[in-house]
Design brief:
This protein is mostly beta strands. The protein is built from no helices and 11 strands. Strands 2, 4, 5, 6, 9, 10 and 11 form a 7-stranded mixed sheet that branches. A 4-stranded antiparallel sheet has the order 1-3-8-7, with no helix packed on it. The radius of gyration is 14 Å and the shape is globular.
Length: 118
């Protein structure tokens, strides 16, 4: 089992940057794929980015070119660097991990609020 705790959210002006962090505890973190998802009020949860243990990343269309997902297996950490933030990026951001061969095995953090506003 893996426990996840996000941090780094907050209020930022449009055009600004934030880096979200996700600390993982438990066994086997390095074999899991990792990801970030977000949910704005009244909207469905949306994929932001994923990263496999082998280093393959995918991004949602709305964040491509602006966000970067990374991981540090030695520290059991996942990061999301967010640049050129827009008001529509405002949401609760969730870190998650999933087993590469069985996506029904997945664990989620509690979420961190990101607000982009002037």
């Amino acid at each position: 089992q893996v426990q996840l705790v996000e941090s780094g959210g907050g209020l930022v002006q449009p055009g600004g940057s934030l880096r979200l962090s996700c600390a993982a505890s438990g066994s086997g973190f390095s074999i899991y794929a990792v990801g970030w998802s977000r949910q704005a009020p009244g909207n469905q949860r949306e994929l932001v980015a994923t990263l496999t243990s082998g280093g393959t990343s995918t991004y949602g269309d709305s964040v491509k070119g602006r966000f970067t997902i990374s991981r540090d297996n030695a520290k059991n950490m996942v990061y999301l660097q967010m640049n050129s933030l827009k008001p529509e990026d405002t949401a609760v951001y969730y870190c998650y991990v999933y087993h590469p061969y069985d996506e029904s095995i997945n664990y989620w953090g509690q979420g961190t609020q990101v607000t982009v506003s002037s």
